[in-house]
TrEMBL record:
Residue span, Glucose-methanol-choline oxidoreductase C-terminal domain: 439-552
Keywords, alphabetical: FAD, Flavoprotein, Oxidoreductase
Record's protein name: Gluconate 2-dehydrogenase (Acceptor)
Similarity section: Belongs to the GMC oxidoreductase family.
A molecular-function term among this protein's GO annotations: oxidoreductase activity, acting on CH-OH group of donors
């Protein structure tokens, strides 16, 4: 029998970016909030002098323990899914702050086209431009409607940036100036402009200067140490929930964080959520936490899995296209890359920041004509200088022996003389890409694992080849003596790291028949349950998702406050 605790106003499941933002906004208005985090507590002091690539980047210190819970994967429905036993394609965060602690800080606004992709594609190119099996949808919200929430997120995080000439309109400038340009970034800028392209400095949650945000949180400037991705920031220069929104919620006295608390079910009576059932992982005790409002703010896989385990919402059926929980899983296509080798140029590649680099969007969204192309959308092109740590970076031209004297000689020659220009491609939703519960494999508590069914499509293959060729053109203009670039995109490989940009499964929209949540991320059929995160994306854009997750979180917080006051569906 689970121990039942006193009811609270709101219980939040997962205390990362989404959970931290919502806790901050609700507690400032006086609501009593409990945040349940299945991982351990974290603080900035944990990362003092800990630039340990082996511990964090290769042994995944900050990631979920796959021996206790993992995902299973299959490329199509005709084969059996198998568990992911070691990290590869993506990394699943664990602990207070979630993936918001070990992210790079790359912070984008999606393009206006992204939010109305289906209707705008049909209006411009006709319905036949969209393949029959492609299940892309409009979001049920426009860029203009979401723009104020982007602005709020950027001011809270202190985003450092330079205005994108091909993006949607902004209500205000970035709160801090762009990060410094390196020699490589200057060369990219000069070469891209010669090609009549529109480069700009990447927007970063790595502060370019000291900053105090509207909540009164002060943070120091980035030191360009190159230890962002997979690491916590010992300076607090990288915006993460632990140094931004969580302290604001705690200061109100209305927020209680319970770490080591693994939520296993959302409890429901009729069409109302009544609370959650969780296990204290330190003791094994089962505890029930009643609440007036339940907010699910986990990673994509956790959000979908918990709804399915709790029998909330209609599971997606790929055979009929009906149901919404698990629908429109999408990823990020990051294989359209090119590597340039420079015989007489040297770059300080080992310095950097998680979001230091140059971007151009000439081939992103519908910023270019697709009339004679066999794909829609596209992706940003990036020259990043995130800091090439010594263990994981040893780039040599194709055809170089993989070991021996020639390998060593070539490695030394190009150790600081290579640059990568990459395409970060969008990922369109397809009817046969989805998430469901695995019928065979279970976690340490005996609950079914989440199963991914996904593979690259002709859409992805054509887009990647297109982006890779554009990346190669830029490197040639930059003066590279040799350029290797992707020629063909093979099958999706879950064993090779690509990005942690998983999206979909609890998608938003304007129609309850084709979506799980409304534009405030409130469930259509359980109105006191909000599901917040990248799980709401109907498909993925050609950018990192965190900025959009942040904007949607602020909008969801507004919706929760409206619901708390008046009830019913929030409009």
């Amino acid at each position: 029998m689970a121990r039942k605790l006193p009811k609270v106003d709101v219980v939040i499941i997962g205390v990362g970016w989404a959970g931290g933002i919502i806790a901050s906004e609700l507690t400032k208005k006086g609501l009593k909030v409990v945040g349940l985090e299945r991982g351990k507590e974290r603080k900035t002091e944990d990362y003092f002098m800990v630039h340990d690539e082996l511990r964090y980047a290769l042994r995944y210190e900050m990631m979920q323990d796959l021996s206790k819970e993992t995902i299973t994967f299959r490329s199509n429905e005709n084969i059996r899914a198998l568990p992911m036993r070691q990290y590869g394609s993506f990394l699943i965060g664990d602990g207070l702050g979630g993936s918001g602690v070990h992210w790079n800080g790359q912070t984008f606004r999606f393009l206006p086209y992204d939010f109305q992709i289906r209707s705008q594609t049909i209006a411009k190119y006709g319905e036949k431009k969209i393949p029959a099996e492609m299940s892309i949808q409009d979001w049920g919200i426009t860029y203009d409607e979401l723009e104020p929430y982007y602005d709020t997120f950027e001011k809270m995080a202190g985003i450092s940036g330079e205005e994108n000439p091909l993006a949607g309109k902004r209500s205000s400038k970035y709160p801090t100036p762009a990060l410094k340009k390196t020699k490589a970034m200057e060369l990219f800028t000069e070469s891209a402009k010669k090609l009549k392209l529109h480069p700009y400095v990447q927007p970063a949650a790595n502060l370019s200067e000291s900053y105090k945000n509207p909540d009164g949180i002060s943070r120091a400037a980035c030191q360009y140490c190159g230890y962002c991705e997979r690491f916590g920031c010992e300076y607090g220069a990288k915006a993460d929930p632990v140094v931004t929104v969580i302290p604001v919620a705690q200061k109100t006295g209305n927020f209680e964080i319970r770490t080591h608390s693994n939520v296993r079910r959302i409890l429901k009576t009729g069409n109302k959520a009544t609370g959650v059932l969780y296990t204290d992982v330190t003791t094994g005790e089962e505890i029930e936490q009643p609440a007036d409002i339940v907010v699910l703010t986990g990673f994509v896989f956790n959000n979908v899995r918990l709804l399915l385990l709790s029998n909330i919402g209609n599971p997606y059926n790929p055979a009929t296209g009906t149901g919404s929980i698990g629908k429109n899983y999408a990823y990020q296509v990051r294989k359209g890359n090119a590597v340039g080798f420079f015989d007489k140029k040297n770059f300080n590649n080992f310095a950097g920041a998680g979001a230091l680099g140059m971007i151009l969007d000439d081939y992103n969204g519908d910023n270019f004509d697709h009339s004679n192309l066999d794909f829609i959308h596209g992706g940003m092109i990036i020259l990043g200088q995130t800091g090439q740590r010594p263990i994981q970076n040893n780039v040599v031209p194709k055809g170089t022996p993989a070991w021996g004297a020639e390998f060593k000689k070539t490695s030394l020659k190009y150790a600081n003389s290579t640059l990568t220009v990459g395409g970060e491609g969008s990922s369109m939703a397809f009817r046969h890409h989805f998430l469901d519960l695995d019928p065979t494999y279970k976690d340490a508590y005996g609950d079914p694992l989440i199963r991914i069914t996904f593979d690259f499509e002709d859409q992805d293959r054509s887009m990647s080849k297109f982006l890779a060729s554009k990346c190669a053109d830029i490197l040639k203009e930059m003066g590279a003596d040799h350029v290797d670039y992707m020629q063909e995109l093979g099958p999706y490989d879950v064993a090779t790291y690509q990005s942690t940009h998983n999206t979909g499964g609890v998608i938003m929209g304007a129609d309850p028949n084709t979506s799980a949540v409304n534009s405030y991320l409130q469930m259509w059929d359980v109105d006191n349950l909000f599901v917040v995160g990248a799980s709401a994306f109907p498909q993925n854009a050609g950018y990192n998702p965190t900025g959009t997750v942040g904007a949607l979180s602020y909008r969801a917080a507004e919706g929760i406050l409206k619901y708390h006051e008046s009830g019913g569906q929030v409009v």
